[in-house]
Amino acid sequence: MFPDVRGRKILIVAHCIFNQNAVMNSVASYPGTMEKVANLIMDAKIGILQMPCLEMNTLGLDRGKIEGYKDGITVENTRIRGALEENIPDKIMNDFVNYIILQIKEYMRYGFTIVGIVGINRSPTCGVNTTSANGVEVEGEGIFIQKIKRELKNLNIEIPFVGVKGSEPEKSVADLKALLGMK
Ligand code: SF4
Domain spans of the chain? Predict the structure, then answer.
């Protein structure tokens, strides 16, 4: 089956790793991609499944408060978390989660490997190791990552998660290399 050169390995990534245009106002660290992280992923020669940017697709590019960044990133992140929790219906959130889960299940059905899921630390949505709450960066997960993890657990699917951060390229690359088994 699939007798071609495809590597049967897929890395699932937060949308903004390959598109910094989607991040909230004033926090883009790069003009296009999160360069060192994106280049490393490209070098790994694995398939890339780019998750949708949940914030942009629900709250918009302005997140409903175009100058919210002036309050500070973690304060604005906390507001965004609240806006997602209070204003976005579960059905919409679940549709985004299911969009990812369906693809994971389909690839796994044919023996492909989902190498990992890469989120964005400090994000109220895609945080893996840290997120934002009560106006500060805290240990914990963003809402989207939480929901994806919960659904994977329900399905008894184990996939490693790694969190990266645009402002910490060296650490991000090191953590990602460990996930990808690269030196
Ligand atoms: S961290 Fe997630 S929600 Fe935030 S900009 Fe990136 S993809 Fe969008």
Answer: 9-180
- Count H helices and E strands in the chain, helices first: 6, 6
Around ligand 1, the residues with Cβ closer than 6 Å are 14-16, 22-23, 53-56, 120, 123, 125-126
* Beta-carbon-side half-sphere exposure of residue 38 (alpha carbons within 13 Å): 16
Strands 136-139 and 130-133, by their bridges, are antiparallel
Ligand 1, pocket-test mutation among 30, 34, 51, 120, most atoms within 8 A of CB: 120
pLDDT digits (tens, 9 = 90+) for 66-119: 999 999 999 999 999 999 999 999 999 999 999 999 999 999 999 999 999 999
- pTM reported for the whole predicted model: 0.98
